[in-house]
Amino acid sequence: MGVGGNFWDLLKPYARSEGMDFLRDKRVAVDLSFWIVQHDTAVRAAFRRYHDHPNASPRNPHLRVTFFRTVNLFAKMGAFPVFVVDGEPPRLKARARMERFCRASGLDPSAMGLLDMDMEDGDGPGFQRNRVFMKCVQECVELLELLGMPILRARSEAEALCAQLNVEGQVDACITADSDAFLFGAKCVIKGLNSNSKEPFECYNISDIEAGLGLRRKHLLAIALLVGNDYDLQGVPGIGIDTAVRFVQLFKEDEILDRLDAIGKGNSAVYGNINWQSPSDESSSRTRSPHCSNCGHPGSKRIHLTTACVLCNVSGNVNCVSKPPGFKCECSACSKVRQSKQQRKHENWRVRVCQKISAEEKFPNYQIIEIYLNNSRNCSGSAENEDHSLLWKNPKIDDLVDFMAYYQNWEPSYTRQRLIPMLTTIFLREMVSNPQAGLLLCGQYEFHSIQRIKIRCSHPFYVVKWTRVSCGSNSQVDEQSDLQLGDTLEVNEPADLLDEPDVPLILIDDGCWFMATDENMELVQAAFPEEVDRFLEEKELKESKSRKKKGTPSDKLDSPKSTGIQLSITEFYRSTKVASQPRSGKEPAEKPSKGGSGEKRRIPTGSDRSLSKSVRRRLLFG
């Protein structure tokens, strides 16, 4: 949730639209709990639509989501994900979570004493309710460890540790939907991410928010205290997000929390900046020179009957014109009156907001301020990963196959196929960092060639062909290979369910088979520069031959008549009509009259074949 009051809608105008390549070669901290909760519902809904049954449910959707999204984030987007797991939530968070649950269930937690039960011991309904979810998180952690991803456990909030990593520069962005990540100090937050979508995702930078709204970290914290947050769902009654932003913008970042503290204590000194007007000043501001009731300009209507109004700028017998609807006089006296009214209106609004804040008991909550501002001490990693060492290891394929077979009933070939994009990415990165002549993919595949350029999700990729070394370059198709596409049909799941990665293709060329995968062009260029240069040269040669084949011969291009513009009907198309000329000593054939009912149509004989086609047609059909 994060900050209440539709806080994301406030920040949306300042979001950047980034594409797939934005995260390439960048480290990102992922809030694992948010990832599971956000996409578990989407996976279940897609599965029900696929099976056309309202009660259909996939097997362990949290594991499926974690597996596919991790492979896509690592391979397709080229990022280095760091997964952060929630620790023990603060008691305020547990109380607010229980209150939110009771609201959704239509219960009154105060009447049932549930909140006090949660605060007294750690075995209340709020903690019991999360045991099932924590079991799902633990299973996802086991899966990520088999995939070789680094995992950090926060002492408290996962988004707090993500923000701390972002502040320290260990990661470049945070992937979470909790808007209070900015309150913990995050600099770059990615709200939603869909690797199989052509649409860009939203990326929020704190620098853009500061430039657009003029709000810094303590300003955002003050807004969270006013409208509600994860530790206090209520906030201050009667204050929404617009009112909170407008009120907070009146103060500087260094003084905003002190001002809220003074207002909460009912200190009248906080109103010192309000310049109250005395009754005499107010009455004097209302006095102004008389204005014409007809045109609205200074001067009376009686005067304008005899003397023309200077501001109306009229000529002739008319001295002034009638004022239009919504007319406002721009004289100094009227402007001063309007300014005074606007100032009094703003001061009254400010007083009402201060009264609402002072009416709230124990405002502001210093414990909430301490949680947000001192997250480096209260929400840092656990003892075993206090140094935040981030290491990405190779996946344990055999253990991973057994794990997915046990939890998902996946065939070994299905798991290996879906893991191929991650393995090829790791192989290419190893070739870039430490090029070796005999390095093989999975110990049995070698780089063969680049087949073509493929556009996927509006981004170009190289289609790379891999061949098995054990069988040589002339290897025949192995029906028992783990990469046979037919093995995947045994999995009863939709093929395009959300974030499932692309399956590597099996290409057969002259009886030899190759595995084709989509790889990033820059990564392939860095790993195999000679192969890329050879592919580009061959591609350019094919394109030049194609252009020559489709082009016009040079002798036709040099022809003076070939200008590209048709000057006459006979320039490009010769006329087939031949003018009929009478033979010597004979008169030309007479044209039969039209409409003669008694006349017979003349049928052309053999001697008439010398006539042109148009003449014969007229003779035949009259």
Give the helices and strands, then pairings.
Elements: H1 7-11, E1 16-18, E2 27-31, H2 32-51, H3 61-76, E3 80-85, H4 91-105, H5 109-112, H6 114-120, H7 125-129, H8 131-147, E4 151-153, H9 158-168, E5 173-175, E6 188-190, E7 201-205, H10 206-213, H11 217-227, H12 241-248, H13 256-264, H14 279-286, H15 301-306, H16 332-359, H17 366-373, H18 375-378, H19 397-408, H20 412-433, E8 445-456, E9 459-468, E10 505-509, E11 512-520, H21 521-527, H22 529-550, H23 554-557, H24 569-572, H25 613-621
Parallel strand pairs: 2-3, 2-5, 3-4, 5-6
Antiparallel strand pairs: 1-7, 6-7, 8-9, 9-11, 10-11
Helix pairs in contact: 2-3, 3-8, 3-20, 4-6, 11-12, 20-21, 21-22
Describe what this molecule looks like in 3D.
The chain is of the alpha/beta class and 622 residues long. Among the domains are: 7-233, Rossmann fold, CATH 3.40.50; 414-549, no CATH class; 591-622, no CATH class. It has 25 helices and eleven strands. It has helices spanning 7-11, 32-51, 61-76, 91-105, 109-112, 114-120, 125-129, 131-147, 158-168, 206-213, 217-227, 241-248, 256-264, 279-286, 301-306, 332-359, 366-373, 375-378, 397-408, 412-433, 521-527, 529-550, 554-557, 569-572, 613-621, and strands spanning 16-18, 27-31, 80-85, 151-153, 173-175, 188-190, 201-205, 445-456, 459-468, 505-509, 512-520. The strands form two sheets. Strands 1-7-6-5-2-3-4 form a seven-stranded mixed sheet, with helices on both faces. Strand 8 and strand 9 (459-468) form a beta hairpin. Helix 2 packs across helix 3, helix 3 packs parallel to helix 20 and helix 4 (91-105) packs antiparallel against helix 6 (114-120). Mean pLDDT is 77; it is low at 118-122, 274-285, 381-385, 471-498, 554-563 and 578-601. It is found in: Nucleus. Residues 539-622 are annotated as: Disordered. This is Flap endonuclease GEN-like 1. It holds the Pfam family XPG_I. One of its GO terms (cellular component) is nucleus.
